[in-house]
Design a protein that fits this description.
The chain is an alpha/beta fold and 184 residues long. The protein has a single domain, classed as Vaccinia Virus protein VP39 (Rossmann fold, 3-Layer(aba) Sandwich). Strands 3-2-1-4-5-7-6 form a 7-stranded mixed β-sheet. The longest helix is centred in the middle third of the chain and has 13 residues. The mean pLDDT is 90.
């Protein structure tokens, strides 16, 4: 697992010793960043279920102005911080050890908004829709913002969202990447 391009290009990231963390593969990550292209430059990013910090760090390396990493695992957050330090991107990073839905509520109360939200929860635990409902309700996605959700093909995005709409879906075996925007 490495940073693909930008200021930390080629940096090999620290990976977990256990199987509790499932980092996004370089192939899938490269495809995601090719799709989102110019949305990264200057963006304020949320990396929910951050794990190693792989997605948020790639965004920072490509020119995002700030990334907020959340994970409820002490081990994951420690790994994400270590990777941010290796990439020399800690000045643009904030780390919060908390559940994603709790974090989203806290961000809403603080008036934070995001241009880009990465959501990569553990597969098949019902977390995808609960987080999307929280984002939908919270209004933290800025008007031209984008949500990138990595999920299992067995956990589809349902159409019960009032302000968010799915605009693109890419499949990579068991992994599905869904792209959502605000429906304005």
């Amino acid at each position: 697992m490495r940073i693909i391009t930008g200021s930390a290009r080629g940096l090999k990231l620290k990976t977990p010793k256990s199987l509790d963390i499932r980092p996004t593969s370089d192939r899938v990550k490269e495809s995601v960043f090719n799709i989102i292209g110019g949305k990264v430059s200057g963006a304020v990013v949320a990396d929910l279920f951050a794990g190693t910090g792989n997605l948020g760090l790639e965004a920072l390396s490509r020119g995002a102005s700030k990334a907020i990493f959340t994970d409820n695992s002490f081990t994951s957050l420690k790994l994400a911080k270590a990777n941010a330090n290796l990439a020399k991107l800690t000045a643009k990073a904030e780390f919060y050890r908390m559940d994603a839905t709790v974090a989203l509520d806290a961000f809403r109360k603080k008036g934070l908004g995001f241009d880009l939200i990465f959501c990569d929860p553990p597969y098949n635990r019902g977390l995808v829709m609960s987080v999307l409902v929280q984002i939908d309700y919270g209004g933290i996605l800025l008007p031209d913002g984008l949500i990138v959700v990595e999920h299992s093909r067995h956990e589809p995005i349902l159409s019960e969202l009032s302000t968010l709409c799915q605009v693109r879906v890419e499949r990579y075996g068991e992994t599905v990447i869904s792209f959502l925007t605000r429906d304005i």
